[in-house]
Amino acid sequence: TMPLVRNLSTNEIIGQILTAKDSLLDWNLKKQNRKITNIVFMGMGEPLYNYDEVTKAIKILLDNEGLCYSRRKITLSTSGVVPIIQKLKYEVDVSLAISLHAVNDKIRNELVPINKKWPIKELLSALEVYPSVNNARRITFEYVMLDGINDSINDAKKLVKLLEPIHAKVNLIPFNPWPGSIYKCSSDKTIKDFA
Fold it and tell me: What residues are paired with 173 via a beta bridge?
């Protein structure tokens, strides 16, 4: 619901990680003793609309002379900018997460407006051929649980069918309401039954 003010620069993105590492005293050179083990680009807008700065930051995180994180420890979450998804794989090859949140275009258009440009079928077609995805490396699909909107058993069955051709895992996210939100979180029982 917040408007876009501007995109972050590479320095600002890396600065967030360095600030967290400083506050946690996380400068142990041995990877197995790190406090910050995984990094997710998520929740601050669409990373693929800030492609150049985000990929520069990822390259610094991956570089042995930079912060030396593994590709498997970095995840980029996108709403589904289809033309850039393939480019991303060949340039930085990090883990991919997709904000799906619905099993049909009508509901996803409302929840994830980018769906009007690249509907579910087009998005999933691009992901079916996403290189190097296999049983060991799956695409994560994020699915926020909204009471009475996308949380029926029928929705769960459609989700399984939709994702069948893709090496995928699903992250069910309980909705976190904010003042003025028109949505409510699904009950714990509904989430459990959906899962």
Answer: 144
